[in-house]
Write a structure and sequence with these properties.
By secondary structure, the protein is α+β, with helices and mostly antiparallel strands. It is built from five helices and six strands, in the order βαββαααβαββ. It has one domain: 2-C-methyl-D-erythritol 2,4-cyclodiphosphate synthase (60s Ribosomal Protein L30, Chain: A), CATH 3.30.1330. α5 links the parallel β4 and β5. The model has no long low-confidence stretch (mean pLDDT 93).
Protein backbone atom coordinates (compact mmCIF):
# COMPACT_ATOMS: atom_id res chain seq x y z
CA UNK A 1 0.00 0.00 0.00
CA UNK A 2 1.18 3.53 -0.82
CA UNK A 3 0.93 6.23 1.83
CA UNK A 4 0.86 9.99 1.87
CA UNK A 5 2.91 11.37 4.77
CA UNK A 6 2.56 14.71 6.53
CA UNK A 7 4.48 16.43 9.29
CA UNK A 8 2.92 18.92 11.67
CA UNK A 9 4.66 21.26 14.10
CA UNK A 10 3.00 22.65 17.20
CA UNK A 11 4.12 24.94 19.99
CA UNK A 12 2.66 26.09 23.28
CA UNK A 13 3.89 27.84 26.39
CA UNK A 14 2.52 28.86 29.77
CA UNK A 15 4.02 30.65 32.75
CA UNK A 16 4.00 29.27 36.26
CA UNK A 17 1.24 30.38 38.60
CA UNK A 18 2.24 32.84 41.30
CA UNK A 19 0.80 32.60 44.84
CA UNK A 20 -1.19 35.84 44.48
CA UNK A 21 -2.81 34.53 41.26
CA UNK A 22 -3.83 31.32 42.95
CA UNK A 23 -5.63 33.12 45.80
CA UNK A 24 -3.97 30.74 48.19
CA UNK A 25 -5.33 30.09 51.64
CA UNK A 26 -1.94 28.75 52.63
CA UNK A 27 1.39 29.06 50.85
CA UNK A 28 1.73 25.32 50.24
CA UNK A 29 -1.62 24.54 48.54
CA UNK A 30 -2.36 25.22 44.88
CA UNK A 31 -5.87 25.17 43.44
CA UNK A 32 -4.73 22.83 40.65
CA UNK A 33 -1.84 20.52 39.75
CA UNK A 34 1.02 20.70 37.26
CA UNK A 35 0.01 18.26 34.52
CA UNK A 36 2.28 17.50 31.58
CA UNK A 37 1.49 14.86 28.94
CA UNK A 38 -1.48 13.87 31.08
CA UNK A 39 0.80 13.07 34.03
CA UNK A 40 0.56 14.87 37.37
CA UNK A 41 3.89 16.22 38.61
CA UNK A 42 3.44 16.06 42.38
CA UNK A 43 4.41 19.02 44.56
CA UNK A 44 5.17 21.25 41.56
CA UNK A 45 3.85 24.72 40.76
CA UNK A 46 0.96 24.63 38.27
CA UNK A 47 0.76 26.68 35.08
CA UNK A 48 -1.55 29.63 34.41
CA UNK A 49 -4.32 28.56 32.00
CA UNK A 50 -8.08 28.39 31.59
CA UNK A 51 -7.67 24.65 31.10
CA UNK A 52 -5.43 22.27 33.06
CA UNK A 53 -2.50 24.01 31.30
CA UNK A 54 -0.94 20.83 29.89
CA UNK A 55 1.51 22.49 27.48
CA UNK A 56 2.68 19.11 26.15
CA UNK A 57 -0.83 18.10 25.05
CA UNK A 58 -1.47 21.63 23.76
CA UNK A 59 1.64 21.54 21.55
CA UNK A 60 0.63 18.08 20.32
CA UNK A 61 -2.91 19.26 19.57
CA UNK A 62 -1.48 22.21 17.62
CA UNK A 63 0.83 19.91 15.65
CA UNK A 64 -2.10 17.71 14.64
CA UNK A 65 -4.05 20.85 13.70
CA UNK A 66 -1.15 21.70 11.39
CA UNK A 67 -1.93 18.55 9.42
CA UNK A 68 -5.73 18.64 9.48
CA UNK A 69 -6.05 22.39 8.99
CA UNK A 70 -8.61 22.53 11.84
CA UNK A 71 -7.45 24.74 14.71
CA UNK A 72 -8.72 23.06 17.88
CA UNK A 73 -6.94 25.36 20.36
CA UNK A 74 -9.00 28.38 19.50
CA UNK A 75 -12.78 28.65 19.24
CA UNK A 76 -13.30 24.88 19.62
CA UNK A 77 -11.33 24.56 22.88
CA UNK A 78 -12.70 27.89 24.10
CA UNK A 79 -16.25 26.53 23.71
CA UNK A 80 -15.28 23.27 25.41
CA UNK A 81 -13.78 25.29 28.29
CA UNK A 82 -17.02 27.30 28.63
CA UNK A 83 -18.81 23.93 28.88
CA UNK A 84 -16.52 22.99 31.77
CA UNK A 85 -14.18 20.74 29.78
CA UNK A 86 -10.71 21.76 30.96
CA UNK A 87 -8.87 18.42 30.58
CA UNK A 88 -6.40 18.91 27.73
CA UNK A 89 -6.74 15.25 26.73
CA UNK A 90 -10.26 16.17 25.52
CA UNK A 91 -8.76 18.80 23.18
CA UNK A 92 -6.27 16.21 21.94
CA UNK A 93 -9.08 13.70 21.39
CA UNK A 94 -10.97 16.31 19.33
CA UNK A 95 -7.93 16.94 17.12
CA UNK A 96 -7.38 13.19 16.73
CA UNK A 97 -11.02 12.73 15.69
CA UNK A 98 -10.57 15.32 12.93
CA UNK A 99 -7.39 13.53 11.82
CA UNK A 100 -9.15 10.16 11.79
CA UNK A 101 -12.04 11.62 9.78
CA UNK A 102 -9.47 12.71 7.19
CA UNK A 103 -7.86 9.24 7.17
CA UNK A 104 -4.68 10.17 9.09
CA UNK A 105 -2.84 7.75 11.37
CA UNK A 106 -0.09 8.81 13.82
CA UNK A 107 3.30 7.20 13.16
CA UNK A 108 5.71 9.24 15.32
CA UNK A 109 5.74 12.18 17.72
CA UNK A 110 8.63 14.14 19.19
CA UNK A 111 8.67 16.81 21.90
CA UNK A 112 11.30 19.36 22.83
CA UNK A 113 10.66 21.01 26.19
CA UNK A 114 12.39 24.14 27.43
CA UNK A 115 12.15 24.82 31.15
CA UNK A 116 14.36 25.28 34.18
CA UNK A 117 11.90 23.28 36.27
CA UNK A 118 10.57 20.74 37.09
CA UNK A 119 13.06 17.91 36.65
CA UNK A 120 11.84 15.97 33.60
CA UNK A 121 14.17 12.96 33.46
CA UNK A 122 12.36 10.89 36.14
CA UNK A 123 8.99 11.62 34.49
CA UNK A 124 9.82 10.90 30.83
CA UNK A 125 8.90 7.20 31.13
CA UNK A 126 5.45 7.88 32.62
CA UNK A 127 4.88 10.71 30.12
CA UNK A 128 5.68 8.43 27.16
CA UNK A 129 3.44 5.70 28.59
CA UNK A 130 0.49 8.09 29.00
CA UNK A 131 1.02 9.63 25.56
CA UNK A 132 1.12 6.13 24.07
CA UNK A 133 -2.26 5.41 25.65
CA UNK A 134 -3.78 8.69 24.46
CA UNK A 135 -2.43 8.27 20.91
CA UNK A 136 -2.74 4.48 20.69
CA UNK A 137 0.92 4.54 19.71
CA UNK A 138 3.88 2.44 20.85
CA UNK A 139 5.83 4.55 23.41
CA UNK A 140 9.00 3.73 21.45
CA UNK A 141 7.59 5.96 18.70
CA UNK A 142 7.48 8.91 21.11
CA UNK A 143 10.52 11.08 21.77
CA UNK A 144 10.80 13.56 24.64
CA UNK A 145 13.79 15.79 25.31
CA UNK A 146 14.11 18.61 27.81
CA UNK A 147 16.59 21.44 28.22
CA UNK A 148 17.04 24.57 30.28
CA UNK A 149 18.30 26.37 27.20
CA UNK A 150 21.25 27.61 29.26
CA UNK A 151 18.93 30.19 30.83
CA UNK A 152 18.77 32.26 27.63
CA UNK A 153 14.96 32.65 27.74
CA UNK A 154 12.33 33.23 30.42
CA UNK A 155 11.55 29.50 30.25
CA UNK A 156 15.17 28.66 30.95
CA UNK A 157 15.11 31.13 33.81
CA UNK A 158 12.27 29.20 35.45
CA UNK A 159 9.26 31.43 34.67
CA UNK A 160 7.33 28.84 32.65
CA UNK A 161 7.44 25.95 30.22
CA UNK A 162 7.60 25.95 26.41
CA UNK A 163 7.04 22.86 24.28
CA UNK A 164 7.63 22.30 20.57
CA UNK A 165 6.09 19.16 19.08
CA UNK A 166 6.56 17.46 15.73
CA UNK A 167 4.16 14.77 14.54
CA UNK A 168 4.36 12.49 11.54
CA UNK A 169 1.11 11.05 10.22
CA UNK A 170 0.20 8.94 7.22
CA UNK A 171 -2.87 7.98 5.24
CA UNK A 172 -3.45 5.72 2.26
CA UNK A 173 -3.09 7.50 -1.06
Amino acid sequence: MQYEYANGIGQDSHRFMQPCEAQLKSADKWPKKLILAGVVFPDETPLVANSDGDVVLHALTNAISGITGINVLGPIADQMCREGITDSSAYLAKSLSFAKDQGWEMTHVSFSIEAMRPKFTPMIGPMKQKLGELLQLDPQRIGITATSGEQLTRFGEGEGIMVICSVTMRRPE
